[in-house]
Amino acid sequence: MKWLTLPALHLPLLMLVFVFSYPQTNLAQSPSPTISTNTDYYLGGGDNIRIDIYDVPQLSGEYQIPAGGAIQMPIIGSISLQGLTLEQAAQVITRAYGRIVKRPLVTISLQAARPLNIWLSGEISRPGSYLLPLANGGGTRPSVQFPTLPQALEKAGGIRASADIRRVIVRRRLKANQEITITYNLWDYLQTGQTTQDLTLRDGDQILVPPQEKINLAETNQVSESNFYIPADQPRTVSVLGEVKRPGRYVAIGGDTQNGQRTNGQPTIIRALQLAGGITSIADIRQIQLQRYTRNGKQQISTINLWQYLQEQDASQDTILQEGDIIFVPTATAIDPGEVSVLATSSFASATVQVSIIGEVNTPGALKLPANTTLNQAILSAGGFKQNRANSRFVELIRLNPNGTISRSQVPINLNQGIDAQTNPIIQDNDIIIVARSRTTVWIDNINNILTPANNIIGGILVPTRLIELLKILVN
Description:
This protein is α+β, with helices and mostly antiparallel strands. It is built from 11 helices and 24 strands. It has 5 domains: about 10-110, wza like domain (wza like fold, 2-Layer Sandwich); about 115-225, Outer membrane lipoprotein wza fold like, CATH 3.10.560.10; about 235-345, Outer membrane lipoprotein wza fold like (Roll), CATH 3.10.560; about 350-435, Outer membrane lipoprotein wza fold like, CATH 3.10.560; about 440-475, no CATH class. The chain is about 20% helix and about 25% strand. The protein is rod-shaped, with a radius of gyration of 41 Å. The chain starts with 10 loop residues before the first helix and ends with a helix.
């Protein structure tokens, strides 16, 4: 094909003919600031671009790419820019105008980028499709700011506790038949603040957050402080079973559940135990089972050791909960008396215990007492021993053991004794304390049972009350 050659004087006239022969609705009257972008940005429907042809301003102008990706340009008509970079689009237009204009110099700049349509799936709060707008920077030539991976995760409600952030997968379509897969390690990004990969997203990206192989308690608590984790104030429905006061399903929130206040903090294991009324006296806090299900139905199980939390201040044991978690508190095979007082004062223990005190006390019956109450304090709460009737040297303690058996023990009493596992133990829920009669009281009661029906008359002889008192003295 021969190049079109005209005298310089006739070229503007020819351009005017071309210009007025085609609609000018897409042409701008004056150029506007351009937006610089990376070369891997692919044009698509919704992008606003400016096309400049050097020395031919009549063919230059601003265009919005329609949904199909093809724009209408003077002389050459429809030309598709869908899926092309700015450089590739400039080459396509250059070739098209090259048949008409000798050595055209075409440049294309992005004026306003379309919102990105991103798909998120896996271990996130709200999987689905999201539109993420691009932000413009400042200055006379503002740059486009692409959304980042953490921003997309935050938009989807944050990642779940079961997420494996070491291998977040992003699938990106480059062309019709070309796709790349990128694996991001967000854990390294959180630890160092550096990444060797580009974390910005592109239109059509598909993000998959896979589940962990097993629950990582320490990592979960650290990741929970990031901006792409589930918000702390988001309630989570969990089930609490086993050795707790009120087994069942609860909605766990951040804060201290015991005093009814909602403060900063994530819903944790201890929060859930507080909602369930606290652990029982025969709970095994070293073997609490946390059962968790991922989005694909896979079960994860982790053992929680709250004794390690109490003794070693291992905060990772009070792990953060996820929607649908199941907490099972098993029964202990044995109870160490030395640990009872420690557990009774913990934040996840029951605030009260219920015991029954029967026999020779002033107000016998069932009592609800503070969890850390001792045997002596329980007796005093029942009004103390009945004077001249109670056996104040020993009481009988009946207790349900973790293995289901019932133990009966005789405990020597010294009301001035401090906490002692042998003589003044911490009482446990459902304990029964029996205060027996003294031997004198037993003997006198037996005599009274004989004498009372006859009004103290034996063989027609009235027995003086003084004699009964004397008999008491002799027995003692």
